[in-house]
Structure formats: structure tokens, C-alpha cells
Design goal:
Layout: H1 2-43, H2 68-80, H3 87-94, E1 99-106, E2 114-122, E3 125-131, E4 138-145, H4 162-169, E5 174-176, E6 181-185, E7 192-199, E8 202-210
Antiparallel strand pairs: 1-2, 2-3, 3-4, 4-8, 5-6, 6-7, 7-8
Length: about 210
């Protein structure tokens, strides 16, 4: 009789331990899930938006894009106005883009405000514009050509030799040998940079980067 009671107590103890272990495990799982959810909801809104990245390497193209004279006029207007060219003006001059890529970016002057970068992609030309949230302000940040179809106001073109670049534009303000970039930087209050990318001794892309505030 005594042995039977001991066995019964032992079985009850094991059951109790099993139940307690299950309860502890369940509590840990619930706590972990709650913690993960709290961490995710707390970090997502303040995640740092991507910065404006440089144009990736592209292969020069001979495929026809927007008319050469239209692009030349657009380049001249952008240079004369320090990039003050609206999204509508770009589409009106260049036509409907092949695609538009968008991504968020944090406003450097207004805490918590997230604006939008839009890249209008055409054959041989791209225009990156900065769209300010809740504002009619839109800035042209960068204009890029990668087609042999176009010529800059100085007479430079994709496919030209590096020696031609130096003869036409002179010595660059600085060079980035790792990316093959020759950078011609203005030094006034609203500097505009002309960035000529060279690969294997020839120009593969020409970019204009505009200052805005």
C-alpha cells in the first residue's frame, strides 16, 4: 500500500513538472514573439532611407532615344537654371519614359519627413528628380547620358577618347580612379558637377549633378 502511494505521488509530481515546463516554454514563446513584434514596429518607421547613389556602370548604347536636339536643349536649360527643371517639363520635352523608378529618402531639413526620388529612364538618358513631400517643389538632381546619339554643349560625346575629354574640358577638378570618373566641379554658391565616366580609355557615360536646397 505504501509503495503504491509513493508511485502515485511520483507520477503526479512528474505530471506537475511537465505542466510547469510547458507553461514556461509557452510563456517564453509568447514573450519572444511580443518582443520581436515590438522591435519590428519600433524600428521600421525610423529605418534610414537610402542615400542618393551614384549611377551604376552602363554599356554605351546606339539604340535611338529622345531626339538629339531636344536632349541638347534640355541640357542647356538645366545648366542655365542650375537644374531648375520640373518633372512635367522633363516629360513634355522627352516624352513618356520607358519606366519610372521611385524610392524614399529622408529630408535633410525636416525631421521625420520622407520625400521621394524618381528616376525617369529613357533609352540612353536618365533624369533623377527630387520630389518634396506636400510641396510643389521638384528638383532635377542628376541628368545622365549613355548613348552615342547625344553630344554635350562643349562637343563631348559617349565613345570619345579620354584625351579628347582633356582637350575639350581641360584638367578635371578631381579624379576617382576606382570608378573611372573625371569630375569637373564648379565652385560658386550653387555648384554643378559634370562627371565623365571613362572605361578602357573611352567615355561610357556623362552625368550632370545639380546643387539644390
Amino acid at each position: 500500500m505504501h509503495t503504491s502511494c509513493v508511485k502515485h505521488d511520483d507520477i503526479m509530481t512528474r505530471k506537475l513538472v511537465f505542466v510547469l515546463v510547458c507553461q514556461v516554454a509557452l510563456s517564453l514563446v509568447i514573450s519572444a514573439c511580443s518582443s520581436a513584434e515590438s522591435t519590428r514596429s519600433g524600428t521600421e518607421p525610423v529605418a534610414a532611407p537610402p542615400e542618393v547613389s551614384r549611377v551604376e556602370d552602363v554599356e554605351p548604347t546606339r539604340e535611338a532615344g529622345p531626339p538629339s536636339d531636344v536632349v541638347s536643349q534640355l541640357i542647356q536649360r538645366a545648366l542655365q537654371s542650375d537644374g531648375s527643371v520640373s518633372y512635367d517639363a522633363l516629360v513634355q520635352r522627352l516624352g513618356a519614359p520607358r519606366r519610372v523608378e521611385t524610392r524614399p529618402i529622408a529630408n535633410q531639413y525636416v525631421d521625420g519627413q520622407v520625400d521621394t526620388l524618381r528616376t525617369l529612364v529613357y533609352t540612353g538618358i536618365e533624369a533623377l528628380v527630387y520630389d518634396v513631400k506636400n510641396s510643389p517643389k521638384i528638383f532635377l538632381v542628376r541628368l545622365s547620358i549613355s548613348s552615342t546619339q547625344y553630344t554635350t554643349p562643349e562637343g563631348l560625346y559617349v565613345g570619345a577618347k579620354e584625351d579628347q575629354v582633356l582637350n575639350i574640358l581641360g584638367t578635371p577638378t578631381r579624379r576617382n580612379d576606382s570608378t573611372g570618373e573625371l569630375i569637373y566641379q564648379e565652385t560658386d554658391s550653387k555648384p554643378t558637377a559634370m562627371v565623365v565616366r571613362v572605361r578602357n580609355g573611352r567615355v561610357v557615360a556623362i552625368n550632370w549633378e545639380f546643387y539644390f536646397a
